[in-house]
Amino acid sequence: MPNDDLPDRGLALKALAADLVCVVVFCTIGRRSHAEGLSLAGIAETAWPFLTGAGAGWLLARAWQRPTALVPTGLIVWAATVIVGMLLRKLTSQGTAPSFIVVASVTTAVLLLGWRGVVWALARRSTTRS
């Protein structure tokens, strides 16, 4: 007998995948815009601090419980992605210029919060039609 109180594992895995893809897309766009190589190793080198941050955000937010929620899940995952990512970049002597922090914050907000906003809008739209 299914328990309605348990989170949907499939939904949580899809949401986690969406977050990880968003981070990789952000890093790929960044590498391309700076004429850096788009090799798998290069993208991985750029992405790992932010992927680690996204993972930390998932743990802090317990994102598997409400994976598509904009608040608090999305905000916590986004903040952790940027903060942990920048701290790890600083610790490994990678760039953390103020302009990069701003661009990274805005871009990851658009990506990580954006897909959740779309899910919310679609869910709201479907309930108003019912």
Automatic annotation (TrEMBL):
Keyword Zinc recorded: no
Membrane-crossing residue ranges in chain numbering: 12-30, 37-61, 67-88, 100-123
Domain of life, per lineage: Bacteria
Coiled-coil blocks: none
Keywords noted in UniProt: Membrane, Transmembrane, Transmembrane helix
Pfam family, one: DUF3054
Protein name (database record): DUF3054 domain-containing protein
Organism expressing this protein natively: Mycolicibacterium parafortuitum (Mycobacterium parafortuitum)
